[in-house]
Every structure is written in C-alpha cells, then in structure tokens.
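Q: I'm writing up a methods section and want to include an example of the input and output format. Could you take the sequence below and give the corresponding predicted structure tokens, formatted cleanly so I can copy it straight into the document?
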Amino acid sequence: MDKITTSIITIGDELLIGQTIDTNSAWIAQQLNAMGIWVHRRVAIGDIKEDILEALARESAVSDIVLITGGLGPTADDITKPTLCEYFNTTLVQDEAALKNVLHIFGSRGLPMLQRNIDQSMVPEACTVIENKRGTAPGMWFEKEGKIYVSMPGVPHEMQGMMESFVLPRLAQHFETPAVVHQTLLTSGMGESFIAERLAAFEAKLPAHVKLAYLPGYSLLKLRLTGLGDNKLAVAAEVSILFHEMKALLEDIVVSDQDIPIAAV
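A: Here is the clean output for your methods example:
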C-alpha cells in the first residue's frame, strides 16, 4: 500500500518570532499518524503572499495533502484567502451559510459588527466550505491535479473542531491508509548509545515495516516501536511480540511499558 503523505503549513509572523508557539502542527500530526497518514514536512511561513504561493507549490509537489492553518482573520495582515484565490485561479464570493454563522455569533452576543466581520463569510469560489462551529472564519477544502488542500483558522480549538467534524472523516473516505501501531518503553539509568549497543542485534532483525525510534529526554529514554501494515490486528500482534522481546533485553532499566509521564509512573 502506498504511503499517503501530508505537508503542514502554518502561517503567521507571530510564529516566526516565537510570540506564539505552534501547537497546531503537533496536534494535526498526531491525528494524521493515528489514521496512517504520514506527515512529510512541517513548514512555518510569514504573512507574505509570495511565500505562501511558493510554499503551496513546493509542498504539493511532494505531498498528497497540504494542510494550512492561519491567516484567515478579519485584519489586513490576514492574506490567506486572496492568496488562495490567486493560486487556484478563482475569486472570492459570499457563502450564505458562513454569513449566517457570523450574524448569529455577533447577534447572540450583542456585539457590534463591522464590514470586516461580514467579509469573513467571503470564500474562494473554487472551494468546498468547511463550517466553523467555534468561530467566524470558515475553512476551505480544495482539490487540484489530484492533490488536496485544506485551509483552516489558526485558532487551535477552531481548527480542531474542523479537523474532527469534517477534514479527518473526509480524508478517511478519500484515501486507503495503512494501519499504524505504536508501543513505547520508558527506560532510565543508561545512556542512549549504550542502549543502542545492547539492542543492536534486536534492531538488525526487525522487519522493514517495523521501526525503532530513540527519543531521549531528561533522565529518561523512550524507545518507540512502530509497525505499519494492512491489517491492524495482525500488525498489533507482531509489534506486541517484538515489544516484549525488547523489554526483556532491557529489564534492568525499564521504568514503564506505557508512554506516560514519570510523575504518573
């Protein structure tokens, strides 16, 4: 089964100067990984039209899916929508459902509304509109030359709502993805290189579809086995056997056979 790949593009000058921490990419990557979609690259760019256009072209050349967050607010520096119009050779039109959503949000809260708030309901004509149940800026789903592009707000809980209600289910329908199974061992008291030496023979005999990752942290080393395959039960059984074999080789330094914080252990 071919690997389905994704690029995540986060837009916003605040990300580049460290004013805002990008939690969106990590959350999206976790959701995609759980359904067997591989994140090929994560890219952060500023609010510059040329940079957005370049990133869209570059990432769509190497990934099946391009997910974009940010740049959809009501202010002048939010340029994602007009840039998407240029990239997809389309124009902005008003979406009636999105306008009703904006009117409802402001009306229910008794807030005054400006033209720039109404303009949040403008979307590129070429897109499928994704309802935003947690804010005013709708999301947008595009398909071009066999690739899928999705643009969502940068506000984390708004993006997560769209991913859970629309994007993830639609991607699951669109692609046949492999099963992914992880098991993680926590160790302490021995350095990464020494553990790698102890596991050299074990790692050398792992099948091609099972990978071992070393994830060092403060006073701990996580060892993550990841298996890929068509049948989740079969992959889970195979990974479980290998995991217990690895655990036995490191029995004297094992802290936990679950990926949990040391405080929970």
